Amino acid sequence: AVCGHGCKYGECTGPNKCKCFPGFTGKTCNQDLNECGLKPRPCEHRCMNTHGSYKCYCLNGYMLMPDGTCASSRTCAMVNCQYGCEEIKGEVQCLCPSGGLQLGPNRRTCIDVDECSAGKAVCSYNRRCINTFGSYYCKCQLGYELKYISGHYDCVDVNECVTNTHRCNLHAECLNTEGSFKCRCKQGYRGSGFNCS
To answer: CATH homologous superfamily of domain 162-196?
Structure first.
């Protein structure tokens, strides 16, 4: 079986047919499936979609049970947690629905962890980190685009000279570089390449 566009989060099962891994969707399995929008809903109270998965959490005054259901809890109601709570050895602790969130100074509400500035994100050299609430993703660096080449997705250099996205002067030639471009005034002209006279 050959899948011309590849299967990003899945496997090729027939000519251009992808079988997606759980949590992913789309023709090439490149889109995250929003499990929170499925019927029946996967969580009893609240649901937070994450990359390739989801997390359940409860309304204030409820405790998240191991099976994902929410049980009424007087202790949770008293603590007033933003995303429900759990009881460990008789001690009530507020929960955050994702590893990319941490309890704030009041120990009740959750604040975002900026994985990009904290250095916790893992992105390959030609990708940049974009922080999101509760997580992050890796995007191609400026001057690169995502392409499916020899069996996998990669960020490849955009040739601005070919795509005509350069800003070179009419009397300059465009030279493609890795991730960018240069402009050089043609013979008989002088200047920066953006301005030639």
So the answer is: Laminin (2.10.25.10)
